[in-house]
Amino acid sequence: MSLRVDQDHARFRGIVRGKIRENLRRYISQGEMIGRKGKDLVSIPVPQIDIPRFTFGERQRGGVGQGDGEPGDPVGGEPGEEGAGKAGEGEGQHVLEVDVTLDELADILGEELELPNIESRGKAKIISAKDRYTGIRRVGPESLRHFKRTYKEALRRAIASGSYDPGTPLVVPQREDKRYRSWKVEEEPVVNAVIVYMMDVSGSMGDEQKEIVRMESFWIDAWLRRQYQGLESRYVIHDAVAREVDRDTFFRTRESGGTMISSAYRLCAQILDADYPAEEWNVYPFHFSDGDNWSMDDTLQCIELLRRSVLPRVNMFAYGQVESPYGSGQFLKDLREHLGGDERVVTSEIRDRDAIVGSIKDFLGKGR
User: Is the pLDDT of residue 329 over 50?
Assistant: First the structure.
């Protein structure tokens, strides 16, 4: 019975996975699941899954719902107040919410967008100690007693001594029969990564632009967490001045002021210098802006900061330009002109919500 239930559950999960993949691009562009995210699970509205239900034969034998009457008439009582609408004749749209782990979601994203697994830099490894059970010993705590090995030893002793009776197969382990699992401490590499999100919050970046950034960062996080055992995220906002904030403030800050992008790159370099040595961390700075900058002089400072202080230590530097009715979009052109030949620099134009899927592919499709 248990095996049958497991098989049915696996079959249902396969159906759910197929429905999620079928609707994935809509989920990404509309942000339906971001508000339902928990610590390890995401609740996803999955439409049009046929759930098994009872059906009845064609012969009408009476009962509830049979006999005289019109659709909408009350059953077994006086008519009440008229409702706001009339009974329809079409089939309703039923939506089922299912919980999916972030790892499953990342796998579906990778399959749908054909994302390659990331090849982490060989030097970016931290050694972690881990206990591994490797054998059996004669002494140890009762919590680690190996029942099967203990029983075998007791049975072997009973047979050898002639005290074992097949008719009454009672085996009582003695102290010398007890066996315990043994372990040793093994050191293994744990690959860690950090994402530094930077976002322009100047007057030209409105709520829609920030919502696009929020949706895209959700999927970037999901994919990178699947690739790395340890992932940290840091958040920097900037107008003419940059400052580090928490995630909630990052997406809720009201736009105002002018723009000096170099302030964000300078703060990013300081964060990496202070907390993330290049030999221990895989580093992913993501910068989102509408492409407006204060001056060409500041843009040239940005290029110099990237070349000297950021690019030498990163796996990839990603710049996403979110289209805004108030932004010039010039910064993307300048980046491509000065750093277009550097394979560590990946740029993407995000014109609207429907472009988020392509932007994710741009950023994560290289496997860096």
Answer: yes
